[in-house]
Amino acid sequence: MPGWHKKVEQAVAGGELQEYAIAPEQYGDRMALFMQWKEMTFPVLMDPLNILDVDKVPILLLVDESGVIRYRNPSEKNLRQFLAKDYKKENPNQERPTASQREVKASAALAQGPDALAAAIADYQSYCQAHPKDAKSSFQLGVLLRARYDSDSQHGKDFQEAILAWSGALALTPSQYIWRRRIQQYGPQLDKPYPFYNWVTEARRVITARGEDPLPLRLEPSGSEMAGPAREAPRRDHEKRYPAEKGTLPDGTVALTLEATLIPHTSKEGSDGHFRLHLRATPKDDYHWTSDAQEAQLWLLPSDGKPKFLTSEITPLPPEAETSLQGRVLEASLTGPEARGGKLALFYYICSDDPPACVYLVSEIALEVPDSL
Amino acid sequence: MPSDNHQNYSQSLSSPPFLRQLSGLLFLLSASAAFGFELAPGRPLPSLALPTASDGQPLSTDSFLGKKSLVHIFGSW
Fold first, then answer.
1. B51–A46 CB contact, under 8 Å
2. What is the DSSP string of A97-140?
């Protein structure tokens, strides 16, 4: 894409051509950072719901003055022909198709407050229930649910329900690669075609080296979003000792809210039953994270057998903050048989405000594997 | 009581040919929105208002009419 941007620089500067983009991607602020990194200033219209209904990217279009597409994925020769030709005489007035009312409302709701988002989700849920074969609406419902999960008004199962909606849509239209990528973005490494957001680190480094401030992200990419493809599931540390036997540590139910989401491989044939586990831990009232505590530990408690160590990698606190109230994420690879009937145990330090004290706690949550996964 | 669709269909049968063709055209136009867009040479680019990455303010593809455009459809990944 930056290649074509260079190729048309002269035509744009000379006023013959204008340039813009449409991005079927979940987060606009990440795209803004990408554009800053690449030093491109043309407008990018964000289409997280994929209203445009493209099934893959990139696509390049040459569009004439009246909005008629003249070339799709053109060659340089096509570009020269396009710029030289006068299309004004041959344009019959064509009706331009547009979004459905439901899509217009959903698109607006993503930018509005929690009430509009809740109303759009409720509308899509009842529509999808009545029209279970409408794959596009099912995908769009997933986008709205994930947006609410990322907001301050999330419901506990929003992300898992988003994954179910996306998986349902993809099952109906397996050739839709935009929908497939939305699941893979958060999914197991075994299913990744490439890393999705590992460029963020490099972008920030380059922008800072230029003497600019990188544009902020409201939500840092998760470990899965940064991770690259893998041929084998990551090895676990079998030497790690289980931190404490049941009942020997205070229960952390009062301190943390845990939300577990299982993201499946998008191809049943290649999956080998692997899930990516995404666990978000958010402090409850009167509790906050502390930056000087030792790492958290996440363990799987299978329905039968010994506890298995999963990970101690937890999303870091923002560097400027001593304490934080934000949700932090731990991710790990799990197989279906391990997850079914199992529980998770999270060991962590956390501090309370009243009375002021930092404590080591354990919180447990049962794993629920939705039937359709 | 007949459904709305049934009523529309009955009306179209008793309408002059021109109106029947028009109702068929309107059906096709609404169907194009429901079943996706064709981004192919000779077809119009859809009219969509979407938030921009830079400030989240809605911007319509209509605002680019009147001048030739290069449109990238891409993801940052």
1. yes
2. PB--HHHHHHHHHHHS-HHHHHHHHHHHHHHHHH-TT-HHHHHH
Contact B41 A71 (CB under 8 A): yes
- How near does any CA of chain A get to the CA of B25, in Å? 11
Higher per-residue pLDDT: B20 or A236: A236
| pLDDT value at A281 more than 80 | yes
Omega cis (within 30) before A355: yes
**Average pLDDT of span A192-197:** 94
pLDDT one-digit tens code per residue, A243-253: 887 678 888 98
The number of CA neighbours under 13 Å toward the Cβ of A57 is 23
pTM summary value:
0.86
- Give me the interface pTM, i.e. the ipTM: 0.89
The answer to whether the CB atoms of B46 and A96 lie below 8 A apart is yes
- Residue A348 parent element (H or E): strand A343-353
Q: What angle do CA A160, A140, B46 make, to 5 degrees?
A: 160
| Side-chain half-sphere CA neighbours of B53 within 13 A | 32
Query: A60: which residues sit within 8 A by CB, 6+ positions away?
Result: A4, A72, A73, A74, B70, B71, B72, B73
